[in-house]
Amino acid sequence: MPRVQVTEKIVFKFDELSDDAKEVARAWWRESEAMYMSDSEFVIEYAEWVAAILGIEFSTRSVGLYGGGTRQKPCVYWSGFYSQGDGACFEGSYSYAKGSAKAIREYAPKDKTLHAIADSLAEVQKRNFYRLVASISHRGHYYHSGCMSVDVEDSGNPYRDIGDAGEIVTQAMRDFADWIYDQLRSEYEYVMSDEHVDESIRINGYEFDESGNIA
Predict the structure, then answer these.
(1) What letter would DSSP give residue 15?
(2) N or C: which end of the chain has fewer CB within 10 A?
(3) What angle, rounded to 10 degrees, do the helices at 165-192 and 112-127 form?
(4) Model-level pTM greater than 0.85?
(5) Which helix or strand (DSSP H or E) is residue 43 part of?
């Protein structure tokens, strides 16, 4: 009868590792798991709620599902983080949203950036009879706010000279795109933080060798 060779392997839980080994384990998790854990869709969903308050509606596009079929996904594009050209942009439309300045303060009372965007849009709409509308599209190969083309006009008279209103609305749309990027970056930094990585490793019960390599 052939002999069965048994090899024993000593494994360690994360908290049993040395500090150097923990760094190896964290690096493994960040490379293999973090992109799946980063909840960017939650951030975009939150941005949709905020956009609606401001009078912005994202365009949507069809994306395929693993099991077949399609679903609609907001046309919010981004790349990141920490490289030249990184940022976020979106496609969609804008029109006046009554009471947006008050509503945004109720929804996000501490977010001064959103307050400033809402105030800017409210003020320029007031000067233009609340008839300004805009279409927003993406241009170029990068995904940052400067890649957005914003066409602004008076919905009641498209040929009326609206003065500097076009620049003001355009800047507000780009400021909002930058705000979206800031939310995405904050989520990414949270997911990549030692605290979150350590807790994720513990919850999943991963085991490692003495050097911190996955067992």
Answers:
(1) G
(2) N
(3) 160
(4) yes
(5) helix 40-54
3-state secondary structure of 134: strand
CA distance 191 to 35: 9
List, for residues 131-153, the tens digit of each pLDDT value: 999 999 999 889 999 999 999 99
Return the SS3 of 85: coil
Kindly state the tokens that stand for 197.
């990585």
Q: Which two tokens stand for residue 9?
A: 């392997």
Q: What is the CA radius of gyration of the chain?
A: 24
Phi-psi region of 176 (alpha: psi -120 to 50; beta: other; left: phi over 0): alpha
Whether the Cβ atoms of residue 134 and residue 167 lie closer than 8 Å to each other: no
> Is residue 58 a contact partner of residue 76, using CB atoms and an 8 Å limit?
yes
First-last CA distance in the chain: 31
Q: Name the residue with tokens 């994306």.
A: 63
Instruction: Give the separation between CA 14 and CA 16, rounded to whole angstroms.
Output: 5
| Helix (H) or strand (E) segment spanning residue 98 | none
SS3 category, 176: helix
| SS3 (DSSP) at 10 | coil
